[in-house]
Amino acid sequence: MKSLSSVLVRFFFSASLLALVSPAFSQRLNYWVGGTPGMENDWNCPKNWSAYQIPNDHSDVVIPDVSSGSRSNPVIQKGVAEVNSLFLDSNAVLNIREQATLVVYNGVHAVYPEDLKIKGLLLEWKEGPQKPSSDVVLRVQAKVNE
After folding, report:
1. pTM of the model
2. Comparison of pLDDT for 85 and 19, the residue scoring more
3. Could you list the residue range(s) of the whole structural domain that residue 70 is in?
4. Domain assignment of residue 7, yes or no
5. What angle do CA 91, 94, 97 make, to 5 degrees?
6. Is residue 14 part of a domain?
């Protein structure tokens, strides 16, 4: 028969593990801060983000207006970046280069959509909570704004 103390230890261990793991799978706000020396505008630099993590498909990303400060606008140079949602504040700019793709699963919200500087691809999934398979995209934007 198990003692009460071993049951309590297992309970607290399980509760602690759940508390550590569950935030990793929930949506999180992640604000662009930029300005890391030598990587001022690099989307893939963890220090350029408020959560000190590169956004992923669980991230609700907010890009602020950095025009009045010393920070730089974010640039996705190459590869595929995924986010849960994307919010661009008024006068905020996001650059997606030719060899880059940004996949947004739950909406792009921009005060001025022309502030998305797209040379690569912006893929926006807008239907239901499930992510698309790799060959399904509901809206694709591929345009050049300079």
Report:
1. 0.69
2. 85
3. 27-141
4. no
5. 145
6. no
Q: Residue 21 — very low, low, confident or very high, per pLDDT cuts 50/70/90?
A: very low
Handedness of CA 69, 70, 71, 75 (dihedral sign): positive
Tokens of 129: 């909570």
| Cα 53 from Cα 59, distance rounded (Å) | 10
Q: Is residue 1 part of a domain?
A: no
Q: Which pairs count as long-range contacts for 31-40, CB under 8 Å and 24+ apart, including other chains? A: 31/61, 31/62, 31/64, 32/61, 32/62, 32/63, 32/64, 32/66, 32/74, 33/71, 34/66, 34/71, 34/72, 34/73, 34/74, 35/70, 35/71, 35/72, 40/71, 40/72
Choose between 114 and 45: higher pLDDT: 45
- For the chain, what is the domain count? 1
Tell me the pLDDT tens digit for each residue of 5-17.
654 455 454 455 4
Both tokens of residue 100?
Answer: 């880059």
The average pLDDT across 49-57 equals: 96
Cα dihedral 108, 97, 43, 128 sign: positive
Domain membership flag for residue 9: no
Q: Average the pLDDT over 57-63 and give the result.
A: 96
- Better-predicted residue by pLDDT, 120 or 81: 81
